[in-house]
Amino acid sequence: MNWYEKLNKYFPVEEMKSKEHMEALLKEKSDVYYKDEGDKHVLMYAEFDSFIFIDYVYVSTAARGQGLGHKLIEKMKAKNKPIILEVEPVDYDETDSEKRLRFYQREGFKHAQSIGYTRRSLATNEVNQMEILYWSPEGATEEEIYEQMKRMYTEVHTYRDEDFYGKSYQHVDEVLQMDENRGIEDILDELDKSKNS
User: What are φ and ψ of residue 138, in 5° steps?
Assistant: First the structure.
């Protein structure tokens, strides 16, 4: 199984970029978009001057619980820049979503509660709500994370989207909103509450 098949098998269709899109990013934006691949993992990420965006992390089932995910995140943290990633809200019927959140919680990530992120999938045409998690060596503000997410969305997610999908993703201002009074619970705190209830 090649790297794309591994990701495609693990991630929901609405979260996947096409293979052509990812190959174009690796080739045409090779100064920003990277693949770190081994027998038991695939890590796709974009590294900008002031932050890192983790696009996909896959660790094979056989290697889970052996600290490989932790090593990959440590490698990113060693670059000493804020790290941003997207997660789907926890779905207690789908245990992987809870496991993923617990992993990032252990790694010291925070939930950017004031950033709203809703995107229509070009694959399914469904609107998906995602949440933003971030880690920062210097205590970045959610406002800074928001600005970095906008840059990433424009340069990575929507890169040549019409060429690959025949239509464009929504404009960044429709997808990402900053709202201090968004009124959403911290999804990482919610994990602890659900464990204790």
Answer: -115, 10
Q: What residues have CB less than 8 Å from 57, skipping those under 6 apart? A: 41, 42, 43, 44, 69, 72, 85
State residue 195's pLDDT score.
61
State pTM to two decimals. Answer: 0.92
Q: Which amino acid is at 180?
A: E
For every residue of the chain, DSSP letters joined together read --HHHHHHHHS-GGGPPPHHHHHHHHHHTTTTEEEEEETTEEEEEEE-SS-EEEEEEEE-GGGTTTTHHHHHHHHHHTT-S-EEEEEPPP-TTSHHHHHHHHHHHHTT-EE-TTEEEEEE-TTT--EEEEEEEEE-SS---HHHHHHHHHHHIIIIITTTHHHHHSSPPPPHHHHEEE-TT-----HHHHHHHHHH-
| Per-residue pLDDT tens over the stretch 156-180 | 999 999 999 999 999 999 999 998 8
Of 45 and 121, the one with more pLDDT: 45
| Closest to 142 measured CA to CA, from 154, 130, 134 | 134
- pLDDT confidence bin for 1, thresholds 50/70/90: confident
Contacts of 113 (CB under 8 A, 6+ apart): 142, 182, 184, 185, 186
